[in-house]
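All the exercises in this workshop are built on plain-text protein records. Instead of coordinates, the fold is spelled out as a row of discrete tokens. Once this layout is familiar, the rest of the handout is easier to follow. The record below serves as our worked example for the rest of this section.
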Amino acid sequence: MKILNLYAGIGGNRKFWGNEHEITAVEYNESIASIYKDLYQNDTVIVADAHEYLRLNFMDYDFIWSSPPCQTHSRLNFSGRSRGEEYQFPSMKLYEEIILLDTFFKGKYVIENVTPYYTPLIPPQISGRHCFWANFKIPNINIGSKVNNDKGNTLAKKMKDRGFEIINFHNYDGDKRQLLNNCVEPEIGQIILNRVLGIEEKSNVKQTQLF
């Protein structure tokens, strides 16, 4: 199966997918992409804008996973005003991707994001602390987050909890904690891919239409 893994980060969702699939990962940050490549050497890693790559190439894949940046949708964006931060527009790229794939894509897709501070324009499937937009039924997953923003947790503990080795990050000068906090739990990625592999090729499950 040909899989497209967008906004791949260090590949938390991909960790338990194995090597029997043809996986293409797209990550904009070259340093983060290099970590992904070290971890998953059989994957094709492309340093590019994932949103634009999706538009140009989505028909070439059987299954697409997309985890667009969540910051502008997060409740932290809303609460940030109390700290004097400026307002941000919620990025409509999330909904552009949902509409594109739900309308034109023939394979299976899942788009993952946080629970937003506003009422979602397209209702998601809720599972655990995640919102999912998909053209198949997402199972109820509530494994809890092993990695959080608690500064009392050491970097080594965070990496252990996620199942990553510190050596993979030794050349990365950015915020390693944030990399791990951005990861989708590997168990969730595994459960969803297993659902994709086990469902009927044709599905009657469709997203609720905009408005």
User: Anything to note?
Assistant: The helical segments are 30-39, 50-57, 75-79, 93-104, 155-162, 176-181, 186-198. Residues 200-211 have pLDDT under 50 and may be disordered. Residues 2-143+185-198 form a domain with the Rossmann fold fold (CATH 3.40.50.150). The two ends are 34 Å apart (CA to CA).
